[in-house]
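Hi R.,

As promised, here are both runs. First protein below:
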Amino acid sequence: MASDCISKMNSVITKIFAKHSLGVVYILLVGYLCGYLFPSIIAFLWQTTVPFIRDMFALSQSFSALMGKPWTLLTYSFFHTSFGHWFFNMVMLYFVGILFMNLFPPKRFLGIYAMGIIMGGLFFILTYQLFPVFSQREDFLLGASAGIMAVLIFLSTYTPFYRIYLFRIFSLPLWILGALLIIIDLASIPISNAGGHIAHLGGALAGCLYALYLKRNISFLSLKRKKRQSSQGRYPNKATEERINVILDKITRSGYDSLTREEKKYLFLASKENADQ
């Protein structure tokens, strides 16, 4: 019975992903909505106070607390401190998700997002342990911002010149938006919510490092193809060679996942044909 239930649930999730690339974003939005509503409902029904969320699911600043409650390294992202905090993060999650799905598949989004949550939490704990200014504080971390920041900085690093339009008035490249957000977080640490801004920087670091890793791999694969092409002779058809170069340039700028299905198929067949010569 339980296996049938799990199978049906997996089937539903698969259909959501297949129907719309934003399925993973919708699932996260529903999860965060539950994380915002349920604590208040439970607090009302059991006549308790909302801070039990902080005690059970928020991420503490100490490693010893993390060892006792390891799940908090992920669960802290599902709860927020206020309606404004929750609403702003959900709006950002939605629009960053749309931007990401225009270039990359949903599974990669989820991987980068989870990396940002984990790295942001660890960065928060490590910073609070290293710097004396935080030694007398007892802070905790809540919110999804580190994961959102990871995805945004990943895009800013991987496709820095991809332009976004703000309010349909003017556009700016992603690297400028990413740099501005990092500067704001750095400047805000001494002012308020130091833990939150530190977590943002941890998420940003995760997104940046992963983007550099992927770009390095793509550059290596492109270089390898070009070396193989030069050693085995150029493509006999000049039009074919020109199209291959266009596709390789697109990979260098935006990554392999930005190719259309037809472009991937064309590249595969062309490289296979060249290898057989």
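And here is the second one, sequence first, then its structure tokens:
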Amino acid sequence: METESDEAGLLTLEELTERTGVSARNVRFYTSRGLVPSPIRRGRSGYYGPDHVARLELVRELQGHGFTLSAIERYVEQIPASATPSDIARHLSLLAPVTADRDVDVSGDLSGMGISPEAAEAVAEVYAEHGRQVAQELSEIVRTMVWPQFREAGYTAEQLREFIHRLKPLTIAGLVTAYEQAIDESQASYDGRRAR
């Protein structure tokens, strides 16, 4: 028998918890912290749609990468309320390289999208060059500022390695945010020039 939630593609709280593996208590907690939107109200009942599922999956993934609750809140604040589940899935896919469980072939993927091999290779080189630069600069900060602080506090080299591991998703999130802001500014500037 189909329920009203089935017809609309919406889920009850129980169905949402089964689908995402997130407890009802945590769904309510995440909602209270603004990480997930409030349920869609129909009468006295609340329902959850694809946006709720996508945002819960993002929160779980960020937790899995070692993000603290406050770091997750800062990350989620950067995602507009109007973001679609596809937009949120893009954020999830950007976190995937942290796990190093897949190879990213930028040049090959772009070529597969119809981009010329020369342009695809140029894009891949930009990523590689700036990736090396970020890694070198962050390594220098860790060497000169973080490690002395850790050593003074009695932390071990293993604890420093754990810190660096947890720094990876934060670095990716920071780079994604900075890139998105720069692209938006560039687009606005381009649109302004075209309007003249």
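A quick note on the second one: Residues 4-101 form a domain with the Multidrug-efflux Transporter Regulator; Chain: A; Domain 2 fold (CATH 1.10.1660.10). Let me know what you think.

Best,
J.
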